[in-house]
Amino acid sequence: MARIELDHIRHSYLAHPARDDDYALKEVHHVFKDGGAYALLGPSGCGKTTLLNIISGLLHASEGRLLFDGEDVSHYPTEARNIAQVFQFPVVYDTMTVYDNLAFPLRNRGVGEAEVERKVRETLDMIDLNDWADRKAQGMTADQKQKISLGRGLVRSDVNAILFDEPLTVIDPHMKWVLRSQLKLLHKRFGHTMVYVTHDQTEALTFADSVVVMYEGEIVQIGTPADLFNRPRHTFVGYFIGSPGMNVMPVSVAGRQARFGEETIELPGTPKTPMGGAIELGVRPEFVRIGHRGMPATIHKVEDIGRQKIVRAVVNGHAVAAVLGEDGEIPAEPRVSFAPEGINIYAGSWRVDYENASEGEAA
Ligand SMILES: Nc1ncnc2c1ncn2[C@@H]1O[C@H](COP(=O)(O)OP(=O)(O)OP(=O)(O)O)[C@@H](O)[C@H]1O
Questions:
Q1: CATH node for 243-354
Q2: Helix, strand or coil for residue 314?
Q3: How many CB atoms lie within 10 A of CB 136?
Q4: How far apart are CA 61 and CA 148, in angstroms?
Q5: Considering just the CA atoms, what is the radius of gyration of the chain in Å?
Q6: Residue of 13, 89, 165 to mutate, ligand 1, most atoms within 8 A of C-beta
Q7: What is its membrane topology (predicted)?
């Protein structure tokens, strides 16, 4: 397995890119640790597949270098990069049996038959296809074929990395959950470096140790699911992760206080200055309190989602969502306040650290 280094990578599909917007990947400068499980998460068109294809060698980046364990592989073709790939749609040999489909990548590299048998059986177990081992792939459902593709990606242990591009799209919801859990177990057991592209936050948050959030050709945050939830580095991370997403409102800041219209909000610390760009306050619905204290609010809607309620309110002319426990009461004259630990300040969409924040908090 390898450490993957993206050294100032930029990519444009145009022959002569001139402006920043001409780049599908603006600038990616990050390291994927050896043995890490990463999910590339972001909306359609943000550059996930472009980045994955640069790692696999299907694309060569316009600028920058790609290194596997310190070796520059930027100009290597896919075959020379020693990676396994699983795509959105099945790639299987229809005329071969399920067993032979999995054995193929191993036999191709001269692995002995005893080891082939051991690895193939182990992988078939994982994807729950041992009973189908002797059946030809032809005629199997798309779902089962995709499981074979996953198996082909997982069967080799000597690869630098395993890359997945939305691999569970054609799998039914229950099996999706099963396979995702198995991938996670497999990662724990064998420590492969895995990079997994998805636009589904549940998929990303359950699979990965580190989620790489992409937005308009940039990586806006790499973090654990808890980091993304508690300290979104960019307002986009706040909107995109969580349901409902983070509330963002325009404020002005003076010292340890934010001014939101006529209201004053105490901050958990003093934001570092200078701050460039529009100043905003971000607070997740889970940190919004509804009660008798705080800013006057008008409640527009209460959605009962089982063990919680989502309350849609308007505060100071701005929509604010709150998550309440099932027993949460809404007073006749409701007021809204924010739990200080959940308040983040943003300047030009990027989070501003508080002065004297501990290292963990500043991350
Ligand atoms: N072959 C291509 N030629 C020109 N532009 C392309 C090509 N492939 C992708 N793009 C553009 O590059 C940008 C990033 O696309 P990319 O496919 O990497 O995004 P993505 O995040 O993987 O999206 P999706 O989830 O829809 O696959 C988009 O604006 C897309 O239109």
A1: 2.40.50.140
A2: strand
A3: 15
A4: 31
A5: 24
A6: 13
A7: Peripheral membrane protein
What ipTM describes this predicted complex? 0.97
The CA 79 to ligand 1 mean position distance, Å, reads 23
Residue 281 structure tokens: 């306050």
Q: Which of 46, 56, 60, 62 to mutate for ligand 1's pocket (most ligand atoms within 8 Å of CB)?
A: 46
Helix (H) or strand (E) holding 362: helix 359-362
Q: Is the Cβ–Cβ distance between 66 and 6 less than 8 Å?
A: yes
d(CA 347, CA 360): 20
For every one of its 363 residues, what pLDDT tens digit does the chain have, with 9 covering 90 and above?
Answer: 799 999 999 999 999 999 999 999 999 999 999 999 999 999 999 999 999 999 999 999 999 999 999 999 999 999 899 999 999 888 999 999 999 999 999 999 999 999 999 999 999 998 889 999 999 999 999 888 988 999 999 898 889 999 999 998 888 888 888 888 878 888 887 788 999 999 888 889 888 989 999 999 999 999 999 999 999 999 999 999 998 999 999 999 999 999 998 899 999 999 998 888 999 999 999 999 999 999 999 999 999 888 899 999 999 999 999 999 888 889 999 999 999 999 999 999 999 999 976 544 544
Task: Give the fold, CATH level 3, of 4-230.
Answer: Rossmann fold (3.40.50)
Q: Which residue's CA is the closest to the ligand 1 atom numbered 5?
A: 13
Spell out the residues 6+ positions from residue 352 whose beta carbon is closer than 8 angstroms to its own.
Answer: 271, 272, 275, 345, 346
User: Pocket residues for ligand 1 (CB within 6 Å)?
Assistant: 13, 24, 42, 44-50, 199
Instruction: Please tell me the distance between residue 41's alpha carbon and the centre of ligand 1 in angstroms.
Output: 14
Among protein residues, the one whose CA lies closest to atom 24 of ligand 1: 44
Instruction: Give domain limits for the chain.
Output: 4-230, 243-354
From 19, 23, 44, give the residue whose CB has the most ligand 1 atoms within 8 Å, as the site to mutate. 44
